[in-house]
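From the methods appendix. Each design record in this collection lists the tokenized structure first, followed by the designed amino acid sequence. Records were kept in a plain field format so they could be parsed without special tools. The example shown here is representative of the layout used throughout.

RECORD:
FOLD TOKENS (400 positions):
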């Protein structure tokens, strides 16, 4: 493989990245979320659904989960978003007691070029922000064929670099309802005011942080901070992608060491190196030293190292395995050890290229090592899958 081909394979990130994330809080005294969010990054686009199940607790969780997953699968299978949403809208039963739908939903199909289709049925209207201003657009109204009082709104947008979208369940817009300060609840106007102020203070705030901030704000408006409904927020941010590359493991052929180092040097973006042998190869080829952070306390893991041109240098399989454990946990807590720093590196990236050396490391077969430590390739595959499916990152994997 030529150096040009290597660079081309490592440059698969779109010009505009769709950063999407969400946050949730359960209704006070409930053990399950009544809202459900599901999303998927497929080639060239991001699809997502936020559903609010009737009531709260287990029943609402089942209804919202069923609605969101079915709708996402329809769209992912190639169904037109309007047609898919019509099928769900016309199929959802009405509660015999409360006379309302078993679930409401907001569905999104956003392409890398900004072409976006949104369908809402029963959820609060989304917020579209550009240059600190809220943009409003008229929807196409599609009535239900089976329920006279049910209809959905279809929006066609063209998003641009810097645009933001915010979706939420009515647990956000109705938060604080009945309190002395917000007798009618936060409402959409109150949410808009809060989000605009937050963006003005921190223009580059990530979707992950913004959605958490919205949910925390909504919960804080409730009396005694006890959520009276499930509170969910989804944030989307169109921006220049944050590119990163991870080198781990020596190349299968020693003759590739020079190309390996050249790719590392020429890459424009954040760089991480995982592995003592890997860092030594790069240090030798680039004629730069690798120094251990002696003052750094990394718990049971070897401490991170420093090397010119690298944003993070860690030990290999032990650190990767621990990072995998952190990513698999339901609530990601970014610890300050080497694996926690690696997880933060992943979460702060959008497009992540893994370059995995194929040479076998006999140390990984040492029977004295803990049984939970897996071979490097398997760990990287699991990390890549998690980053794509759970954290909606764009990941490429190359073996050399």
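DESIGN:
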């Amino acid at each position: 493989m030529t150096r040009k081909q290597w660079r081309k394979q490592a440059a698969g990130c779109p010009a505009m990245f769709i950063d999407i994330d969400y946050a949730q809080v359960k209704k006070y005294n409930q053990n399950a979320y009544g809202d459900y969010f599901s999303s998927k990054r497929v080639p060239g686009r991001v699809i997502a659904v936020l559903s609010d199940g009737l009531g709260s607790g287990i029943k609402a969780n089942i209804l919202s989960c069923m609605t969101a997953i079915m709708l996402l699968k329809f769209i992912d299978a190639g169904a037109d978003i309007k047609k898919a949403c019509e099928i769900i809208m016309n199929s959802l039963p009405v509660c015999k007691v409360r006379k309302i739908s078993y679930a409401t939903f907001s569905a999104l199909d956003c392409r890398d070029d900004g072409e976006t289709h949104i369908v809402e049925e029963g959820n609060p209207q989304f917020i579209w922000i550009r240059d600190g201003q809220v943009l409003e657009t008229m929807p196409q109204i599609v009535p239900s064929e089976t329920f006279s009082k049910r209809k959905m709104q279809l929006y066609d947008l063209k998003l641009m670099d810097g645009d933001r979208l915010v979706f939420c369940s009515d647990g956000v817009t109705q938060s604080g309802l009945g309190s002395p300060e917000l007798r009618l609840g936060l409402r959409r106007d109150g949410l808009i005011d809060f989000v605009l102020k937050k963006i003005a203070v921190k223009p580059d705030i990530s979707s992950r942080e913004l959605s958490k901030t919205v949910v925390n704000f909504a919960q804080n408006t409730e009396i005694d901070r006890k959520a009276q409904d499930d509170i969910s927020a989804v944030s989307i941010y169109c921006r220049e992608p944050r590119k990163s590359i991870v080198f781990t493991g020596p190349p299968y052929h020693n003759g590739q060491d020079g190309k390996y180092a050249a790719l590392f040097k020429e890459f424009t973006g954040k760089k991480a190196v995982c592995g003592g042998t890997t860092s030594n190869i790069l240090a030798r080829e680039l004629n730069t030293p690798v120094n251990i952070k002696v003052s750094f306390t990394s718990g049971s893991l070897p401490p991170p190292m420093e090397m010119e041109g690298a944003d993070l240098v860690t030990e290999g399989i032990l650190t990767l395995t621990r990072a995998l454990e952190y990513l698999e946990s339901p609530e990601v807590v970014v610890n300050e050890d080497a694996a926690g720093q690696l997880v933060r590196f992943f979460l702060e990236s959008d497009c992540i290229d893994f370059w995995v050396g194929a040479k076998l490391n006999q140390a990984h077969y040492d029977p004295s090592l803990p049984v939970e430590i897996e071979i490097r390739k398997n760990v990287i595959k699991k990390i890549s899958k998690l980053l794509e499916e759970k954290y909606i990152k764009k990941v490429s994997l190359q073996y050399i």
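APPENDIX NOTE: The first strand starts at residue 17 and ends at 25.
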